Amino acid sequence: MNMIRTAMLLALMTALFMGVGYMLGGAGGMMIAFVIAAGMNLFSYWNADKMVLRMHHAVEVDERSAPEYYGIVRSLAAKAGLPMPRVYLIQNPQPNAFATGRNPQNAAVAATTGLLERLSPEEVAGVMAHELAHVQNRDTLTMTITATLAGAISMLGNFALFFGGGRSNNNPFGFIGILVAMIVAPFAAMLVQMAISRTREYSADKRGAEICGNPLWLASALNKIARSAKQVVNPDAERNPATAHMFIINPLSGQRMDSLFSTHPDTDNRIAALQAMAAAGASPAAQPPGGQGPWGTRAGRPRQQAPAPWGRAGADRGRKGPWS
């Protein structure tokens, strides 16, 4: 049922794109938009993950350049029964993360330096488990294609006045059509993004808690990320707002309209669901101090004894990380 609903929403997104084409150029514009939408969907299937990673200046890391971060992802992927995804790091002080890729065999996860610096290893594990849940649920392709189409609809809306302003154009609705293309279509595309993303976040929270082994790790991480995201601006996300729904928490600064227009569910509701899950014992409890954490280190050790999560040892804190 979820796949059918998602397919219908993607079809609606394509129809919106074609509708904008019709408003700007009549039947000919609609056909051109259909060809463009089909081409974009095909292109997005193979390349959208690379585009999104490039938009956010993500740099791929490995076991040598980011041992703890990479180890967390590797251990969680093994626990979830997933192929090892490519692991990326984004030099950005806002704590956040996202996953992308057309299928589990070609997936990638990305975290910001702010996430690794502000969160404990357990909380990082909760976040990356959430992103791996998106990979396992095959949400990443849907979310990436949606971001591409939403960006294209917004682009057409921004240029609608130029496309539809001439007297010789084939616009059947005149100035009204231009206004609809400029305002209504991008707003409708945002609503479709919201419908696709909101239900998938709850599902990824639940599965992520099962993968990492403790819902409270993810609940604590969501609380920290949400508070910090409101205080730290993410310039790349602000320049590419169509990708906002891919992040674990809305990265955009204008989050005061969260309850109505955000692509994400309310964070307090997500935390409450995770706390209820922990109270019900729906997921294995975290191992006690002295046990092995999900990334292969001792879960009970003091945080300061751990290597820095982006790969810098204590003696090398003056050196730049692998993103330099």
Structure, described:
- This protein has 324 residues and is mainly alpha-helical.
- The chain has one domain.
- Helix content is 59%, strand content 6%.
- The chain has a 4-stranded mixed β-sheet with strand order 1-2-4-3, sandwiched between helices.
- A hairpin with a 7-residue loop joins strand 3 and strand 4.
- Mean pLDDT is 76; it is low at 256-261 and 283-324.
- It is an enzyme of class 3 (hydrolase).
- The chain crosses the membrane at residues 7-24, 30-48, 141-163, 175-196.
- InterPro entries: HtpX_protease, Pept_M48_protease_HtpX, Peptidase_M48.
- Residues 314-324 have a biased composition (Basic and acidic residues).
Query: What would you report as the Rg, rounded to the nearest angstrom?
Result: 21 Å
Largest sheet: 4 strands, mixed
**Terminus-to-terminus distance:** 45 Å
Number of strands: 4
Cofactor: Zn(2+)
Family: Belongs to the peptidase M48B family.
Protein name: Protease HtpX homolog
Subcellular location: Cell membrane
